[in-house]
Amino acid sequence: MDMGLKGKRALVCASSKGLGRGCAEALAAEGVDLILNARGAEALEATAAEIRDAHGVDVVTVAGDITDGDVQAQVIKAAQGVDILVNNAGGPPPGMWTDWNRDDFIAAFDANMLAPIALIQALVPAMMDKGWGRVVNITSASVKAPIPVLGLSNTARTGLTGFVAGTSRQVAGSGVTINNLLPGIHATDRAVSLDEGVMKAQGITMEEAKAQREATIPAGRYGTREEFGAACAFLCSDKAGFIVGQNLLLDGGALNATI
Ligand code: NAP
User: Fold this and answer.
1) Residue identifier of the C-alpha nearest atom 15 of ligand 1
2) Over the stretch 82-99, which tens digit does the pLDDT of each residue have?
3) Exposure pattern of 226-251 as b/e (b: 16+ CB <10 Å)?
4) Residue among 15, 17, 106, 250 whose CB has most ligand 1 atoms within 8 A, to mutate
């Protein structure tokens, strides 16, 4: 299927590894030029070089923490006129609902709600002027089914989801779609760190922790960044222009729900 993306430009935040990288690779495979961001410059440059070599697209990098206002300004400058925005950042740490203070909540809001909103506000108006644009926010399955130890994630991502629900309907008439991708468990560094949390909390091995979490997934395995990236590329394609304000769950069937 021709996704109609050749020659477009995309900003993919938090994309040196994991799901953000999966989205960047899938877009590059469709001929999309990229602006990539992550905090660690070394991994970011390595990912950029691999994507250039594999797909022959232009890749610009902006290293820095996407929650930092100065870094956001640099990223926005590099991304002027982009057709596609993929919002992403690291997830908040696990913990107990009784332990989180105001600073913990603000940090989660900055990463998983306010940074994506700031980038939408900065980049969507030019997409509207052009009459075409795509925004995909990487959120979490925790938006549909709360994960008790990830209360900071449950809270911040639901805030972003509410913003997208209203805003997507305000920009759709200008040819811009905004949708969310909700990962269940995927085989990335984040999944390894959450496996470690289960290992430590229950005094079991990493293999046992992973097997325990895999057993909660009807597909019987973790998702891959390639599968996740393919869904992102489809939502960014010209075939997906009628999909507005939706929350697409990629969880191998883990959420036991009829709708
Ligand atoms: P990951 O494998 O840890 O990769 C995170 C990527 O984001 C890395 O490239 C990292 O590079 C970059 N990054 C993290 N924080 C950043 C920041 N503040 N500014 C700029 N770049 C940043 O994580 P992932 O599994 O791909 O997860 C992506 C998102 O999906 C996270 O919000 C996660 O909570 C959520 N999610 C993941 C899963 C899962 O099973 N994997 C499930 C549900 C939700 P640097 O460290 O160098 O910055």
Assistant:
1) 90
2) 999 999 999 999 999 999
3) eebbbbbbbbbbeebeebbbbbbbbb
4) 17
pLDDT digits (tens, 9 = 90+) for 7-66: 999 999 999 999 999 999 999 999 999 999 999 999 999 999 999 999 999 999 999 999
Q: How far is the CA of 174 from the centre of ligand 1 (A)?
A: 31
Q: Is ligand 1 within 6 A of the CB of residue 120? A: no
Indicate the top mutation candidate among 13, 61, 140, 188 to test ligand 1's pocket, ranked by most ligand atoms within 8 A of CB.
Answer: 188
